[in-house]
Design a protein that fits this description.
Layout (H helix, E strand, L loop, with lengths): L2 E5 L6 H12 L3 E3 H5 E2 L5 E2 L2 H12 L4 E5 L6 H6 L2 E4 L4 H16 L11 H14 L1
Parallel strand pairs: 1-5, 1-6, 2-5
Antiparallel strand pairs: 3-4
Helix pairs in contact: 5-6
Length: 132
């Protein structure tokens, strides 16, 4: 088990699970949100070309743990994975977790990838809607 792909909706626990697997197997983990978005330059969405270039660099490694919501543009990773975990979560629980995470980040209790603005909360809620 060298190449692991984790799929699930926003708030499903992909990051927590990938961190545990990374520690257990000593394999680098990658969040595809960080591939899709350029946090270093103001949280700007990368073009598909830029994102896929970064993604291909990840796939060149002998082992990896990738977490994503299952975007089609990253299907090559699923095809190369030795194992795929799908985290199933009901929609209401996803809303709860997204809101809880946003509040913790807003209060400075939890680190974040995206600034916890109200606009960001609405974006994550819309992402949950589109996932289901």
């Amino acid at each position: 088990m060298k190449k692991i792909y984790i799929i699930g909706p926003v708030g499903s626990g992909k990051t927590t699970f990938s961190k545990k697997l990374s520690k257990k197997y000593n394999i680098n983990r990658y969040e595809l949100d960080k591939v899709s978005w350029d946090d270093d330059n103001g949280n700007i969405k990368r073009t598909d070309e830029e994102a896929l270039k970064l993604f291909d660099e990840i796939l060149e490694n002998d082992s990896w743990i990738i977490e994503d919501v299952g975007r089609n543009k990253f299907k090559k990773g699923r095809e190369q994975a030795d194992i795929i975990y799908y985290i199933k979560l009901c929609r209401l629980k996803s809303y709860y977790r997204v809101t809880k995470r946003w509040l913790k980040q807003r209060l400075g209790v939890e680190a974040y990838n995206h600034p916890p603005t109200f606009k960001q909360l609405l974006y994550f809620i819309s992402t949950v809607n589109s996932y289901y």
